[in-house]
Amino acid sequence: MTDVLTTPSASDTPEPTKSTLLAKYVALPAAFRWMILAAFGVLLLSTVQTFGGDDTTVLTDPGTSGAMLRFAVPILLAGLGGLFSERAGIVNIGLEGMMVLGTWFGAWGTVNFGSPWAGILCAAAGGALGGLLHAVATVSFGVDHIISGVAINILAPGMARFMSDQVFSDWQGGSITQSPRAGGLPKINVPVLSGNDGLLANIDDADIFFISDLAGVLEGFVTQLSLYTVIAFALVPLSGWMLWRTRIGLRIRICGERPEAGESLGVDIYKHKYIGVIISGAMAGLAGGFIAMELSNVFREGQTQGRGFIGLAALIFGNWRPAGLAVGSLLFGYPFVLALRDSEGLGTHSLLLVIAIALFGMLAWSIKQQKRTDAIIAGVLASGTLIWWLMTDRAPNWLPNTMPYATVLLVLLFMSQNLRMPAADGQIYRKGGA
Questions:
Q1: Which regions of the chain are under pLDDT 70?
Q2: Are residues 168 and 124 in the same domain?
Q3: Which residue, of 61, 290, 339, 344, has the fewest CB within 10 Å?
Q4: How many domains are there within the chain?
């Protein structure tokens, strides 16, 4: 009797848990997961570059990765702007217009005060003014978020043209469409790692499969690195800390999740929505300032080129998280740089093979997860891309410009069940539920 009472039955015995690589990967912090994915991305590029037959080294060249880092900064900062706004429950498609204000004020501050640091502050202030306008319209007056954002995107270029006519037209080297030359922040080389005799350059010259390519990519990240770029990427962990580790961040996030619950606990929802949207505008302004001060060294009409919308795309790709957003901005900046540096089109053509392999990987994953529809779509797209690569010698010029948006569509198509936007994002909130 004692044995019967003390011996657990089969139903009481817990089933053994299987320790898999996938489970260990999921348990890692988000930043480490994205780093592993980035390493796999470089491995894929290295494989295609070595065995793809296009005879190109531009895919992992230090110059390509360094330019990618610079092109990613405006997308990253615009995406961070979208992060703060949408975490506060406000959709901000007016990021593009706020970036335009940032380009103008960044150039004006640099030239007027003779300091790029002043230009950075003015760029942030100019974008914040656009954010304040968006907050007044959406939070105080309950204007539809999309309508308000579109209005700002239309208004900002007109304001910039008017201000240029009033200010830059009277300055030497300026006109109604552009500012005098505006310099950026100093550039640095990371000791030991960068330079012709640096550690990464020596590893790159060793021509070791994957290892040398990874060193080449990292070399571009630490060579001639602008302090503006350092500030931009430092804002990624800072934004994560602020939103998930501080009281004000918790209150901003509750505005985008359950504003009624926050109101019942005494949170001033209007106030924190304003804070989120104004920070959003400041981030977008910094993005515009980078374009004017670092990429162009001058304010010029039309120079944002839709990067505000690409920043929103990177935000969705990163699942409304700073680390994923940073990876998305690098990914979306890559094809633009490749198109600029690859005059013969070989690197862009190789990118078609990279896309095909990634889609075949998605096909295998969908089959393993028993997602029949996803598997069929991935198989069709992968086969079509592979045939495209086999049948052509050069990729079309329009491919790099469409890749960021195509990537977002693919992410939404295959990973939508893992994406979670803030629950109250885009909803009109009225105090007291009125």
A1: 1-19, 22, 55, 342-346, 433-434
A2: yes
A3: 344
A4: 2
Cα 354 from Cα 60, distance rounded (Å): 13
> In the structure, how many helices (H) and strands (E) does the chain have?
18, 2
pLDDT tens-digit readout, 391-403: 988 878 788 778 7
Distance CA 43, CA 63 (A): 18
Last residue of some domain: 278, 307, 342?
342
Do 320 and 422 meet the contact criterion of CB atoms below 8 Å apart? yes
Considering 313, 342, 371, which residue would you say is the last residue of a domain? 342
Is 11 among the domain residues?
no
Task: Tell me which residue range forms the domain holding 261.
Answer: 55-189+224-342
The H-or-E segment that residue 112 falls in is helix 95-113
Taking the alpha carbons at both ends of the chain, their separation in whole angstroms is: 67
- What phi-psi label fits residue 68: left (phi over 0), alpha (psi between -120 and 50 degrees) or beta? alpha
Structural domain contains residue 399: yes
Q: How many residues does the chain have?
A: 434
| Residue 226 three-state SS | strand
> Is residue 297 located within the same domain as residue 336?
yes
Q: Token pair of 29, please?
A: 């912090």
Q: Strand ranges (DSSP E) for 168-235?
A: 187-188, 225-226
| Confidence at residue 109, expressed as pLDDT on a 0 to 100 scale | 97
Residue 286 counted as domain residue = yes
Share of the chain above pLDDT 70, in %: 93
pLDDT at 3: 42
Show Cβ contacts of residue 234 under 8 Å, excluding neighbours closer than 6 positions.
none
Half-sphere exposure of 59 (CA within 13 A, CB side): 28
The CATH number of the domain holding residue 308 is 1.10.3470
Residue spans of beta strands (DSSP E) within 196-260? 225-226
